[in-house]
Specification:
Elements lengths: L2 H11 L4 E2 L2 H7 L11 E5 L4 H14 L3 E4 L15 E5 L15 E5 L4 H10 L2 E3 L11 H7 L6 H4 L6 E7 L5 E4 L12 H5 L8 E11 L3 E9 L2 H12 L4 E8 H10 L10 E9 L4 H8 L9 E3 L2 H17 L7 E6 L5 H15 L4 E7 L4 E7 L5 H17 L24 H14 L13
Parallel strand pairs: 2-4, 3-4
Antiparallel strand pairs: 1-2, 5-9, 6-9, 7-8, 7-9, 10-12, 10-13, 11-12, 11-15, 14-16, 15-16
Helix pairs in contact: 1-3, 9-11, 12-13
């Protein structure tokens, strides 16, 4: 990193928005889990799409790599720099336009957090379709870049299904505004979809038009306990295609034990496996819930919440899991998508694999079972270096053997790039590389992500 480039960046965004402080850069070069660290030379915080374009042009001309950062909640080291990069933060892109309640949409900056979008939607009598545990820090630009999923995916779909338009700065410094006020628009390539899930390798998202949804008048939430995982999967299969399904969340016994011990949140039902079910709609769905559960093989009666306070208490059983995962240090995380028919075997075999590689570790399984999207967290995992890599590779191979996808909603980042071939053919990867080369011939933008 040359002093001349740092001065040029300061001239673009202002000296106060550029930092070379080692402590600042050190804090920005570690991933959300705390397991992976990188190296950066300077942090720059542009305040507009035009400033982003000027920053990218300056870095490209200087031959310097750029890593884009939003809320830095990536769980696959997607924002960890590897080349003494310039860190380009979108945190100052924070505008929120007035909600269009007629068309049910809102335009926001990429640095706006999920929680802020949710509050704006709620104030307008609407709801935003994606929800994550990291809602207070995850930014919508990063969520679009990784096509984030979350707690409501079974109802509303992933982040890509909420994106109606984008402002994107391309690696050559040009700015693309892909917007349309009509719901059906087939004029040319669907460029917005190209950048959703690209993990910042093709351009920097600076603004988004987001779809909002009507707020359901009625909700009913339940937690059911099961002694047998197959019985839980049978219930999940029944509910996932049901009209009004709003959430389907699996929690294993280890997760329940951790939340009870360290967060004081105990599950209100017995059983080694818990399933949180939520139905939402314009009418009372309690009877539909009861009818669907009447034949389920439960451990006792389900806990049901009809009013908001009771529903919030039940949701805390699921959301508290994220709060306790780091109680023994940074967990080793796996984000996996599996056919429902493979989940029971995977749960057993993954536990055996962890016991083989890290006998003192605790495998915790939970996630969005409606989509087969599970989060396996290896808590109290002290492995590092080659031993950690050996467990990670063995787990990826196990996922592959069960016809799963090595990344469901967290993206590839840097952590999973060597395993992409398990879920994509050589022709797929070659096509993705060709797209990357077309947009970014020198490969300076997010160079560590996806391909490495």
């Amino acid at each position: 990193m040359t002093e001349a480039l740092t001065e040029r960046l300061a001239a673009i965004v202002g000296a106060s928005q550029v930092s070379t402080d080692p402590d600042v850069l050190g804090g920005r070069s570690v991933d959300y889990t705390g397991r992976y660290r990188g190296h950066a030379a300077v942090l720059v915080r542009p305040g507009s799409a035009e400033e982003v374009a000027a920053v990218l042009t300056a870095c490209r001309d200087a031959g310097v790599s750029v890593t884009v950062q939003g809320g830095r909640t990536s769980l696959v080291a997607g924002t960890v720099p590897e080349h003494d990069d310039v860190l380009l933060s979108t945190e100052r892109l924070r505008e929120i336009d007035e909600v269009d309640t007629v068309e049910r949409r809102v335009h926001v900056g990429a640095g706006v957090t999920l929680a802020e979008v949710q509050r704006a939607a709620t104030a307008a009598g609407l709801v935003f379709g994606v929800d994550l545990a990291a809602r207070d820090s995850a930014t919508v630009g990063g969520m679009a870049s990784t096509n984030a999923g979350g707690l409501r995916t079974v109802c509303y779909g992933n982040m890509g299904e909420q994106v109606l338009g984008l402002d994107v700065v391309l690696p050559d410094g040009s700015v693309v505004h892909r917007h349309s006020q009509v719901r059906s628009d087939n004029t040319g390539y669907d460029l917005a979809s190209l950048f959703v899930g690209a993990e910042g390798t093709l351009g920097v998202i600076t603004g988004l038009d987001l779809r909002l949804h009507p707020t359901p008048r009625q909700r009913v939430t339940a937690i059911c306990g099961y002694a047998d995982l197959d019985a839980l999967i049978a219930t999940a299969r029944l509910f996932r295609d049901m009209d009004g399904i709003a959430a389907l969340e699996l929690i294993d016994a280890r997760a329940s034990a951790l939340t009870a011990e360290h967060a004081g949140v105990a599950a209100p039902v017995e059983g080694a496996w818990k399933l949180l079910i939520e139905l939402a709609g314009d009418t009372d769905l309690t009877d539909r819930l009861a009818e669907a559960l009447s034949e389920a093989d439960l451990c006792g009666e389900p806990a049901v919440g009809i009013d908001g306070a009771a529903q919030q208490r039940l949701w805390q059983v699921r959301e508290a899991v994220a709060d306790v995962l780091g109680v023994y240090g940074p967990p080793l995380k796996f984000d996996v998508s599996l056919p429902l028919s493979s989940i029971t075997a995977f749960a057993a075999e993954s536990a055996e694999l962890v016991a083989e590689h890290a006998p003192d570790a605790i495998p915790v399984l939970f996630g969005h079972v409606g989509e087969g999207n599970l989060h396996l967290n290896i808590v109290r995992c002290t492995l590092s270096g080659e031993r950690e890599h050996a467990l990670y590779t063995a787990m990826m191979a196990l996922i592959d053997r069960h016809d799963g996808n090595v990344s469901s909603e967290h993206g590839v980042g840097t952590r999973k790039r060597e395993y992409v071939s398990m879920s994509r053919t050589d022709a797929d990867i070659a096509a993705m590389r060709a797209v990357k080369a077309a947009f970014d011939p020198t490969g300076y933008l997010n160079p560590a992500v996806l391909f490495g």
